[in-house]
Amino acid sequence: MSSKKKNKNHGIPRIGDKAPDFTAITTDGEITFSDWQGDSWVVLFSHPADFTPVCTTELCEFAKKSDEFAKRNTKLIGLSIDSIHSHLAWRENIKEKLGIELPYPLIADLDTRVAQKYGMIHPNESSTVTVRAVFLIDPSRTIQALIYYPLSNGRNIDEVLRLVDSLQTSAAHGVATPVNWCPGESVVVPPPKTTEAVKERAGKDYKHVDFYLAFKELEDQAT
Description:
The chain is of the alpha+beta class and 223 residues long. It has 2 domains: 2-155, Glutaredoxin, CATH 3.40.30.10; 174-216, Antioxidant, Horf6, Chain A, domain2 (Antioxidant, Horf6, Chain A, domain 2), CATH 3.30.1020.10. Helices cover 33% and strands 21% of the residues. It has 8 helices and 10 strands. The strands form 2 sheets. It has a 7-stranded mixed beta sheet.
């Protein structure tokens, strides 16, 4: 009975799923996630535990880049299965020791209710802390991307920011982005699905590699 409770997990929400809603206590007070999100994009990320070294470096880097996320209409929110008192003490410790204030809320999830909804606890890695999960959620509350890291390895926050740019560009222009794409670079035109579309595509001002692979420039990409 206890082992069932310990390992109960709602599974990992997939790309295209609606982000599970929840009400929780955070360092900014109680929130209902859908209300807090509003019409913004969201980066929801979990960290294994407060007062741990790798997590501290990650939270600081998210803080340093918070203005860049805000420029992209993207809110940041963190989570671990620690108490609100631990979160508040850790925030003050980071401010005192590193001179960095965290401008985004941290969710206190002692009962693991939110972590379970998002599949953030992987028992074969640890049954007592969350792994390093990242969910990118669009304004319609649809999950557009998710990334998971183990406990031992910190995330690349620049890559999370790049992925926000990529997702927003695809959503705005109906295009794809190639490997290592960054704003200002050529994007990929979706491949044709009919013989007529193949003919139409040939007359477009694209950089044609073959009938299935073509690139174009965007004039109004975010920078």
